[in-house]
Amino acid sequence: MLNGASSSGKSTLCEILQNELNEPFLRFSLDFFMFNSPVLPKRRELDGPFSWSAMRPKLFDGYFNCLSALAYAGNNLLVDYIIESRYQLQELINKLGRFDVFLVGVHCPIEELERRERARGDRSLGDAKRDLETVHTFTSYDFEVDSSNPAEMNSREIVSAWTLRAFPAAINRTSELT
User: Fold this and answer.
1) Would you call 19 exposed, middle or buried from its count of C-beta atoms within 10 A (0-12, 13-18, 19+)?
2) Of 79, 129, 157, 174, whose CB count within 10 A is highest?
3) 98 vs 22, 45, 71, 79, CA distance in Å?
4) What is the pLDDT of residue 101?
5) Is the pTM for the entire model greater than 0.70?
6) Whole-number Å distance between alpha carbons of 82 and 136
7) pLDDT tens-digit profile of 16-26?
């Protein structure tokens, strides 16, 4: 599971990792539901069932359940996610804590995040900065990368660290504290 701010390079790393790993891994991201996707209704209202505040909690809960269901079915997963709160971390622990979760912190300098965010054009400006202020404050990691380094290099380092991973994993150590 790769955790980092919006535009930090998580999706790019997952794509490269999927090609480099010697076992089959499914890529899964909340982005598949949210951006340029027909999954969410186009209709939006400030209040009521079509408001983001009404749809968001159910979408996130469903996403966490999808991860758990895919893992229970025996799939290896490459997960691209932004852990936004202690509550979300606890939900991930509740759903995935019994699995071998290798948690990778994806770091990126703010200047590079903002440059990428502008270049993408499909994110609200300021999301990356807001994420960066909190995303790495809720947990420790099994491994960390700086995504201002080449993605291929980071991918090789992640594969190497994953191969040599220690137990219990960071997410399991975190669950012991909560």
Assistant:
1) exposed
2) 79
3) 23, 38, 10, 16
4) 94
5) yes
6) 9
7) 999 999 999 99
